[in-house]
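Justification of computing resources. Each target in the renewal requires a structure prediction run like the one illustrated here; the chain below, 413 residues long, is used simply to show the kind of job we budget for.
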Amino acid sequence: MFSRSGWITMIAVVALTGGVAQAQTFGVELHDNLMPASGGMAGVSISRPQDLQSAINANPATMRQYQGTQFSFGGGWADANVHFNQAAPLPLIGVQPYDATSTQPGALLGNIGVTQSLDAAGLPVTAGLALISNAGTGMNFRGIPQSNSTASQLAVLEMVAGLGVDIFEGFSVGATFQLGTGYIDGPFSGIGAMTTAYGARGTVGANYFVTPTTSVGVYWQSEQGFDFKNAAQLPIGPARNVPMDLPENIGFGLADSSLMEGKLLLAADILYKQWSQSQLFGQIYDDQWAFQFGGQYEWNPRLRLRLGYAYNQNPLSGPVVTNIAGIPVPDGIPAARYVQAQFAAITQNRITTGFGIRDVFMPGIDLDVFAGYAFNASDRLATTTVSIHDNYWVGGGLSWRIGAGAAPTVATQ
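Resulting structure tokens:
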């Protein structure tokens, strides 16, 4: 029988693996796109993050912008309709022509973080710890007989721990260690089962205030490898492992608050994701660029208004090999493209908005709310056409500033 902890884990996976990759991801990774404040600024956060989860999850050097003790709990709901039009049969994998929309529900995600500065102990250090919904995708056509129970689920939940350290005034560096739990089901029709694996990765970053109002940040993040044991059972022979890597990432960010007497913060981030070097996704995605632009206006000392826009390349690669993650895919290129379509994070243009209220219930408690929409997209992959529409997300978070953290920090100025 399933233990209580097993049921809790299963519920968490189901919640995460809704329409995540069709919502706010680059490929299958969320980055800071659904964080309480960054979510309203299209995920911009590499140099001047507006919530502590974003600082911990992206450029760890920016944790130094959070003083005292601070805690934040955030969450979001992301949903989209994913439609498949399969124009020709794929007999060796049991798929017949069909035209249907995935029945996979939206995704409910949570991100929790805490930071503690050690300045009171004479150390120019801020420590951070977070639980992050890092990556996921999901679609379900099991109710369509012609699909041969096509469905795929992927979720990666991370525990992140790290430090940010001041080297000299205005310049900080940081590092984090991420330990992830991954869950996969599919994407090989009729031969997959949900399997769990674990993987680790590291991030190092730096941030520098060129002037008191202008800052630049950069970080590098390693690959994160998972090996899903016995995840695919072929008709002949033993079960096969499915190796999967989340990619190496490089991020650069610029932020400036010199306009309108410091009330307007403008920021831009650039991400480069090296999918081609990763297992499983190396046969599905090309390397990808993503560009994020966000603004925040301080309406008054308590209210901040946010807008954002993001553009990313469609990462789906051209005609793929017929071996994905070491698993042979029969029916040639059309069947391989059918598998690829199950990871079709093809949305390229998205807009966001949000607001933040300081001291919302009592001094030291802040509220952030965000919402976003991605424009419809479609792509034809051999005999499979995939389209994504009605793509939206909403969320927010509450943050507590304790002690020295109750005063405004660099991150909120």
